[in-house]
From TrEMBL:
It comes from the Bacteria. Keywords: Antibiotic resistance, Cell membrane, Cell shape, Cell wall biogenesis/degradation, Hydrolase, Membrane, Peptidoglycan synthesis, Transmembrane, Transmembrane helix. Belongs to the UppP family. The gene is uppP. This is Undecaprenyl-diphosphatase. It is a multi-pass membrane protein.
Amino acid sequence: MTFFHAIVISMTIFEAVIFGVVQGLTEFLPVSSSGHLVLLHEFFGTTIHNLSFDVMLHLATLLAVVVYFKKDIIHVVDVFKRMMMRQDVLHRERNLIVALVIGTIPAGLLGALFASTIEGAFRSTISVSIALIMGSILFVVAEKVSKRNKEITGKRGFFVGCFQALALIPGISRSGSTISGGLILGFTRDDAVRFSFLLSIPIILGAGIVEVFLGDNAFVFNVPIIIGACAAFISGLWAIHFLVKFLKGHTLMPFVWYRVVLALLLIFIF
């Protein structure tokens, strides 16, 4: 999940680009956006929430997923339409639709009801650091038990959705938890990655909607905000491409060590 907070309203273009790039990268790489944003907030000394920037980042990262997986999305929509018209669809295609719908429920429901409470309770530097390490342990377990021979089903999709709900805790990483969940449940590496990103679409969209309705700030669109959003889109698109290609032939272990180092930095520096 995206836990972007505390950006000064009068941000410079440089700050907007830095925050946008970091948000785009860490939204999709399994390293957690929260830990990196803590570092950036400390570096820039930012403490004021900017609703406009939050929403624009949500839209930018959402657009990155849609652009990269446009063929998959078009196929999913086509299958869904055929299902609604009671036309024949492949069993695997039907399972994917059901898994996406059911898999959205855990994080969607918990996020709508308790996102602010959970984020507030686990927002401290030490909490984020612990979550970074716990997420790393999850990655290790996923790589150890992965069998990679099970197809995506509604039941397994629901359990991946439960892993996605864990990412409501700052420091866990949405992509990392869902990919790990898929591997633990026996998905192929490619299926785990693609399902993770497709499952992110309604969640990112929902997070943006929640920001709009729960925010108490007026929308302000200026050059830094727009440039920051563009930076988030470009870096997000690159991050998706990199992760999809990287995990075809590599494990999550490099991200495990990166997260542990980041956690130690947060603990001992801040």
